[in-house]
Structures are given as C-alpha cells and as structure tokens.
Amino acid sequence: MTMKKAWTSVVSGLLLAAGTAMAAPNLEIIATNLDNPRGLAFGPDDALYVTEAGKGGEGPCVIGAENQDACLGTSGAITRIFQGNQERIVTGLPSLASKDGSRSSGPQSIVFTSQGAYFLVGLGLDPIARTDPQKLGNAGGENLGQLVYMPLNGSPQNWVDIAQYETTNNPENTKVDSNPYAVIAVADGFVVADAGGNSLLHVDNNKTITTLATFAPRMVSAPPQLNLPEGAQIPMESVPDCVVQGTDGAFYVGELTGFPFEKGSARIWRVVPGEQPEVFAEGFTNIIGLAVAEDGGWYVLEIAKNSLLSNVPGGALIHLTKDGMRHTVAEEGLIMPTAVVVGPDKALYVSNFGAMPGLGQVVRIDPSQSGTNLASWTNLK
User: Fold this and answer.
1) Most distant CA pair in the chain: distance in Å?
2) Angle (nearest 5°) at CA 36 between 235 and 254
3) CATH topology for 3-367?
4) pLDDT (average), residues 297-319
5) pTM above 0.85, yes or no
6) Residues 174, 190: Cα–Cα separation, whole Å
7) What is 202-245 written as a DSSP string?
8) What does residue 321 show for φ and ψ, rounded to 5 degrees?
9) Separation between Cα atoms, residue 328 and residue 322, nearest integer Å
C-alpha cells in the first residue's frame, strides 16, 4: 500500500475545500503556493524547512499504485521559511505524480544533524521500476526511494538506497513495494518508516540497514462498494508513515492504514529494538504525523479524521498525554495535513493541503489557544 492510493477517493472533496476553505481562527498561514508539502524540520539557523513532493513531470510514465499514470519529473523542492519569508532553496529534486500533479511521491521527510540535512525521496512502487528501461530507467528513476544527504554548504547526494533494501530483504515478506516516508535522527544513525514496505528500519552511520519491526495487515469487513458477499473480509495494511522517539527512548510509529481506511482503526505502535512491537494507543483515523509534546506525550496528526473514503477531507491534530488522555487541538481549516513539528517557540507547525500541487501551505498553531478544559478531554487509550 502506498500513500498515493490513499488520496484517490478525496480528490473532488479537496478541490471543493481548496476553493472555499479559509484559515481557522487558530491557524496562522506562514507559507503558501507549495507543491504537495510534506515533512517539516527546524534547521540550525532556526528557520523552518519543508519538503515539497512536487508535481511529477513530463515522464516517462508508469502505471502507478492506483492503475493511473505516474509520471517522473524534477519538480520536487525544499523550501526555507524564516521571519515571514519563504524561498525554495533546493529545486530539481525527483518527483513522481499523476499528470495533474496529485498523488505525488518525492521529497517527503527531512531531518538535520551536525553534518547537514538528510531527507527521504519516496517511491510507491516495486523498486525494480526505477531501473527498468521500459519504465523509469535511464531517466533518473534511481533517485527515487533514497535517503539523501545535503551538506550544510553543498548539493544533495544519494546516501542510502532504502528501496533497494525492500527488494533485497522484503522484511514483511509480502508484495515488494517501497515508499520511504519518514526519517528521524538517532544517536547511531537514522530510523526510517517505509510506508510501502510496512517496516521500520535502522540505518547506521556506516550505511548498514537493519529491520527494527514490521507491521502486518489486519482482516476487516469489506466495504459495500466492493459488492462482496455479506460478512466478507479483506486485508487492511498498516502503512506506517511516521515515527518519533519518545522520552523513554522507544520508537512510536503511527499508521495510516490502507484501504478501506476504516475510521478509528489507526494505531500507534511502541517499538523497542529487539522486542516485538506493541500497540500503544488506538482509536485514531489515518495517522500521518507524530511529534513529541512538551509534557512527554504526543501530538497526533490525522490526514482525514473521517477516513480517506469520506467525501469530507478535513484532518485533525490531537494531543495525546502519557496517561492516554486526548484532546483535539485543531481541526477547522486543516485540509489533508501531512506533517507536524513542534517549534522552538512551543507552537505547532503543520503542512496543510499536503496533497494538492500549488495550493500547499504551512500553518502555525498556538496550542494554548485550543481550549483545554477538562470536559474536552477523553481517555480512549
């Protein structure tokens, strides 16, 4: 399952929302006109950086995960936001998208270390398509599915081929599919969530990749539109697409879930290396982002609070405390949000309209304005 599949059923709703939605009172728009904005990170210069997955290009094109054309281009970018100004500081990065620029895979998650920036470039296909001359070969396809290093004063360069690891090892032991979507820095390297491979990977400083965990599909009731016999079940994939390291040192992984994107079925996993992953919290819908809160809890971002099969594409940002209490920080004005980060000012920054080329935003949210009276909290852990 890839991230691109998740957006098919909401395109019409997105177009309507884009034409009518205004920023909610507690959302401050700090960047606009982005092409499918995804990951966010603050750099050593205190500026905010956002990856833009781009809008594909002229091709070559392949049949993507939704049986639609996915065309390769170099429209991916990284934008810097600082003191009211935004600037694309890196352009010409790989991007694979439908001809209308939607369902894009490209620069997705970014993190800074003392050596510079590292960012993921997604894929969403069997990695063999990258080099097949009948598909994306000979056109730069090999630059998809990579963890890329960008020195502080240099140009991006492929550092580790994440997608190749899926080809060689196939950790979940199912269909070969890779879409490296989220990366964080750890003491001895990086941890990567591969949404296509349903796996959590460790990349050490010597570029050696190992598997930390895999996330198997669940059987769920088939939706009516499939016209299957009553009581029929189908597999719903996990699609792990975000990861943070908690204050306890464990890794917390959010899952988007695959088709049929059941409302309330997304979970947060707790992963301790060397141990079996455990479900830590559940009852969410289509998780797309996680951030560690100041109180040691988490901010959980839902790309579609009503499910990706809903005609209403609104998202939600939820505060989950360490003891399982949860409160909605923001939802009005969040349309297909795709990433969240806590800023040095303790405010929350969210990539908004993250599935729409040219209409993407970054918004700032002051959590103190979200209304945290006790009656608004629930405990569903």
Assistant:
1) 60
2) 40
3) Neuraminidase (2.120.10)
4) 94
5) yes
6) 24
7) EEETT--EEEEEE---EEEEPPGGG-PPTT-EEEE---EEEEEE
8) -85, 170
9) 15
* CA dist., res. 312 & res. 121, Å (int): 29
- Does residue 8 have a pLDDT over 50? no
Torsion-angle region of 239 (φ positive above 0: left; ψ -120 to 50: alpha; else: beta): left
The contacts found for 151-156 with CB under 8 angstroms, 24 or more apart, are 151/115, 151/116, 152/44, 152/115, 152/116, 152/117, 154/116, 156/90, 156/93, 156/119
Give the Å distances, CA to CA, from 46 to 28, 43, 233, 244, 339. Answer: 18, 5, 49, 20, 18
Domain spans in the chain, listed from the N-terminal domain onward:
3-367
Write the pLDDT tens digit of every residue in 43-69: 999 999 999 999 999 999 998 776 778
**Average pLDDT value over all residues in the chain:** 91
What's the mean pLDDT in 168-181? 96
Dihedral of alpha carbons 23, 26, 31, 36, sign: negative
CA distance 258 to 5: 8
Give the C-alpha separation, 105 to 191, whole Å: 19
Residue 307 token pair:
């499910």
Region 271-292: mean pLDDT is 97
Taking residue 44's Cβ as centre, other Cβ atoms within 10 Å add up to 11
